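This part of the workshop introduces the protein records we will be handling. A record pairs a protein's sequence with a compact description of its fold. Comparing a sequence with its tokens is the quickest way to learn the format. To make this concrete, we reproduce a full record directly below:
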Amino acid sequence: MMPGFQARKSFQLTAVICLWLISPVKADVLLGVNGERLVGTILEETADSVVFQSEIGGRVTVLRSRIRELQRTPATQGAQTNAFQAGQPAASMSGLWQPPGVGKDGFDWLQLKSDEWLKGHLDYVQDKKVQFESDKLENLTLDFKDVRRLYSAKPMFIKFDQLEQVFGTVIVSNDVVEVIGP
């Protein structure tokens, strides 16, 4: 084998690996008929179901009858989502999409920093932990740092460290807590 051929082959392999490493990651979106939104990767599709991998929910098989829409995100949009996760300000991504049921359907809603939306019932937020129950994912305990926005459906009692207890509907967004009530 000629020495120049081996060096050229090695260079080509290195270039392919570098391009693969720096190429943007693709993110797919699964919108459920109940309004839940999962961000991740479609692993497998059949006529009856979709196998979906999400960071929080893991590997989930969802019946097509439970899916309102599948969005296959182009690589450039996937790169934008990944840039956000790396620390872009929330204002740059916060207004993109919100489930139509937020504030209208009687469920609590939680948006993760991965842009996934969960619909269910908020049990509590305490000691930097969020306890949330979803029909599909059941009981979840999440780190509060992984939550971008939270909307309570019903008024609840809220207590902040040394302040008096208040009662109202809660919206948490960008480290701001808003209590709407008497």
Q: What stands out?
A: The helical segments are 3-22, 75-85. Confidence is low (pLDDT under 50) at residues 7-25, 75-95. DSSP finds two helices and 13 strands in the chain.
